[in-house]
């Protein structure tokens, strides 16, 4: 359950960002980008975040998670594509020399606040 | 109103990890993060490794467990400094975060060490997510766990530099296809070094020690 550690990190960053802005009344939502290669279960993360926000000024803040597909580019034939499974072999030429284009993101994009 | 942020969620952990990597580098040491399921044979691999290196290289060990110091007790017979980290006395964190490793390092005299071996909390998911400032990540997969694990836990195998296939002595008693394990692991990570071995009988240990030695000289 490392989603709890991740939820705590998110809350830390949100607190810091909100303190810097003046006149924030309430945090409505937080937009996240999470790559599918990350071992993060979105529902678990949402649950953990709710739990740690309970009884704090951040209670009710929603996590909006954009899941980023695993995209690769072949170092041999140059073809690009999306991966539905973790088999890192080029579906066009069979080469294992694939570069990851996306899929390992774990970031906060923006925070929606009410003034 | 929208506040633009764009920040890596694990940046606090990653920053601490980067600091650790710098400290290790300045001390001229190498740190290896050993991960794997509970019962995959991480501690026995450590015991074997310490035996092989005894008198040749100076090793420090960081033992990560949710609770108990049973593993650290097992390693006491070796002449090497050991620091135990317990993530939570009543069963807590599923991985070692960088700050726990940083604190543990204060208990080791880094200047006097060539190699720091960290045994992470037994788990095939969470430890893969957290950089602890190591130079190399190793996953221990025992033959009893099945061929499919690299496909089921891809991040762990993707992030690791080497995989130790442990409990090789059990091979005659199992239906597992060792070539299929290799194939699955390499399909997730084509650069993965693979070391099938038995820490019990010593079969295959030399190749593993040879690789570790090579990493020390880099």
Summarize the structure in short:
The complex is a heterodimer of chains A (115) and B (218). Chain A is of the alpha+beta class.
Describe this structure in words.
Chain A has a domain at 3-69 and 103-114: hypothetical protein PF0899 fold (2-Layer Sandwich). Helix content of chain A is 26%, strand content 35%. Chain A has helices at residues 3-20, 42-53; strands at residues 26-35, 62-68, 70-74, 80-83, 98-102, 106-114. In chain A, the strands form 2 sheets. In chain A, strands 2-1-6 form a 3-stranded mixed sheet, with helices on one face. In chain A, strands 4-3-5 form a 3-stranded antiparallel sheet, with no helix packed on it. Chain A is elongated and about 55 Å long. In chain B, helix 1 runs parallel beside helix 4. Chain B has helices at residues 11-26, 42-53, 70-74, 98-105, 149-152, 154-159, 178-188, 205-217, and strands at residues 2-8, 30-36, 59-65, 82-86, 115-119, 136-142, 162-166, 193-196. The radius of gyration of chain B is 17 Å and the shape is globular. Chain B is an alpha/beta fold. Chain B has a 7-stranded parallel sheet, with helices on both faces. Chain B has a single domain, classed as P-loop containing nucleotide triphosphate hydrolases (Rossmann fold). In chain B, helix 7 (178-188) links the parallel strand 7 and strand 8. Chain B has 8 helices and 8 strands; from the N terminus they run E-H-E-H-E-H-E-H-E-E-H-H-E-H-E-H. Classes of the chains: A alpha+beta (115), B alpha/beta (218). The A-B interface holds A 1-2, 5-6, 9-10, 12-13, 17-18, 21, 32, 37-40, 85-89, 96-98, 106-115 and B 1-13, 93-95, 97, 125-126, 128-130, 150-151, 153-156, 158, 186-190. Strand 6 of chain A pairs antiparallel with strand 1 (2-8) of chain B.
